[in-house]
Design goal:
Structural class: alpha+beta
Radius of gyration: 18 Å
CATH class: Alpha Beta
Strand order of the largest sheet: 4-3-2-6-5-1-11-12
CATH topology: Glutamine Phosphoribosylpyrophosphate, subunit 1, domain 1
Helix content: 25-40%
Mean pLDDT: 91
Bound molecules: aspartic acid
Strand content: 15-25%
Order of helices and strands: HEHHEEHEHHEEEEHHHEEEE
CATH superfamily: (Glycosyl)asparaginase
Length: 319
C-alpha cells in the first residue's frame, strides 16, 4: 500500500515515454541535502553557496566540453567541492562526537564498473583522489583508516595534518549538536561524457556528531555511489544508515535495468517512495546515458547544480 502513489506515478509517466534528444554530455552536482529553512540563510549565504556551486559546475562543463572522460570530470569537480569549506567534505568536514574528522569518499567508472573508495580518513587533503588511486592502482575497492592513508602517502597523494580539517563553523556545529539534533551534508558529481561513458563520485565528512569509526553510505558502492553505462550514475546525500539499508544508488540502477523505468521514475520511487516512508532524509543526483539529469530529494533543500550540452543548466538550493 505504501508504494501505491509512487507506483501510480511511475506507471503514468512510463506511458508518456521519454522523447528527449540525447545530450552530448551532461553533469549534475550536489553539496548536501537536508531540511533547510530559507529563514536560516542570509542573502549573502545564498550568494556564497550558489557561487560555489557555479564554480564547480563550470569546471565540469569546461572539462566535458573539452572531451575529458566522465571519470576524470567527477574527480575534478569533487576535488573543487572538497576544497571549499562551505561543504561537508574535505576542508569543511564535520566532526565526530569525540572531535575528530573522519572522511569517506568513493568514485565509480560506469564504463567498466571499476570502483574505488576510502573511509575513516583524517589526513588526506582530497579523499576523492585517494579513492581514484584505489580504483586505478590497487586490486581492491575499499581501503580504510591508517591502511588507506599509508597507501595514499606511498603513492604521491597530498597528505595533511589533521588540523587542516579544523573549521570554526563545524566545531561550533558539533558543540550545538551535542545538545540537540544532528545535521548532514556531502558533495557529489555525476557525469556523462562525449563518448557516452558515465561516472559518479561522492565525498563527505559523514554525519556531524557520528561515533568514532562510523562509516556511512558514501564509500559503500551501490549505497551512496554507483555508475553503470547500461543505466545511470548516481551520487547520494542523506542519512547514510538508511542509504546503506536500501542500497539506494544501485536500487535506482536496478529499477532501470530490470523494470525499464526511466531515471526520473526510478529515482522518485526510491527517494520519495521507499526512503521517505522510512527515513533517510536527503536526495540523489543522477544522470543516464541520454543525458537526462535527475535531482530528486525528500527533504526541503539540496545544494545542487546541473548542466547539459544543449544549454539547459542551473543551480538551486531549496525545493
Ligand atoms: N550520507 C552521508 C553519510 O551518512 C552524510 C550526508 O550525505 O549528509 O555519511
Amino acid at each position: 500500500m505504501k508504494y501505491l502513489i509512487p507506483l501510480l506515478f511511475v506507471l503514468i509517466t512510463a506511458c508518456q515515454g521519454n522523447q528527449n534528444q540525447p545530450e552530448d554530455w551532461a553533469i549534475a552536482i550536489h553539496g548536501g541535502a537536508g531540511n533547510m529553512d530559507r529563514a536560516n540563510f542570509s542573502d549573502e549565504d545564498i550568494l556564497h553557496y550558489k557561487a560555489a556551486l557555479s564554480e564547480a559546475l563550470d569546471i565540469g562543463k569546461k572539462a566535458l566540453n573539452g572531451g575529458q572522460s566522465a571519470v576524470d570530470v567527477v574527480e575534478l569537480v569533487v576535488k573543487n567541492l572538497e576544497d571549499n569549506p562551505l561543504f561537508n567534505a574535505g576542508k569543511g568536514a564535520v566532526f565526530t562526537n569525540d572531535g575528530r574528522n573522519e572522511l569517506d569518499a568513493a568514485i565509480m567508472d560506469g564504463s567498466n564498473l571499476n570502483a574505488g573508495a576510502v573511509a575513516g580518513i583524517g589526513d588526506i587533503r582530497n579523499p576523492i583522489g585517494a579513492a581514484r588511486l584505489v580504483m586505478d592502482q590497487s586490486p581492491h575497492v575499499l581501503l580504510i583508516g591508517k591502511g588507506a592513508s599509508l597507501y595514499a602517502s606511498q603513492n604521491g597523494i597530498e597528505m595533511v595534518d589533521s588540523s587542516y580539517f579544523f573549521t570554526e563553523k563545524r566545531w561550533q556545529l558539533l558543540q550545538r549538536t551535542l545538545q540537540k539534533a544532528g545535521k548532514n551534508g556531502t558533495v557529489g558529481c555525476v557525469a556523462l561524457d562525449k563518448k557516452g561513458n558515465l561516472a559518479a563520485a561522492t565525498s563527505t565528512g559523514g554525519m556531524n556528531n557520528k561515533r568514532y569509526g562510523r562509516v556511512g553510505d558514501v564509500p559503500i558502492i551501490g549505497a551512496g555511489t554507483y555508475a553503470n553505462n547500461h543505466t545511470c550514475a548516481v551520487s547520494a546525500t542523506g542519512h547514510g544508515e538508511y542509504y546503506i539499508r536500501y542500497t539506494v544508488a544501485h536500487d535506482i540502477s536496478a529499477l532501470m535495468e530490470y523494470k525499464e523505468l526511466s531515471i526520473q521514475e526510478a529515482a522518485r520511487l526510491v527517494v520519495n517512495g521507499k526512503l521517505s516512508n522510512d527515513a533517510g532524509n536527503g536526495g540523489v543526483i543522477a544522470v543516464d546515458k541520454q543525458g537526462n539529469v535527475v535531482l530528486e530529494m525528500n527533504s526541503t533543500g539540496m545544494f545542487r547544480g546541473w548542466a547539459k550540452a544543449s544549454g539547459d543548466e542551473g543551480v538551486a538550493i531549496f525545493k
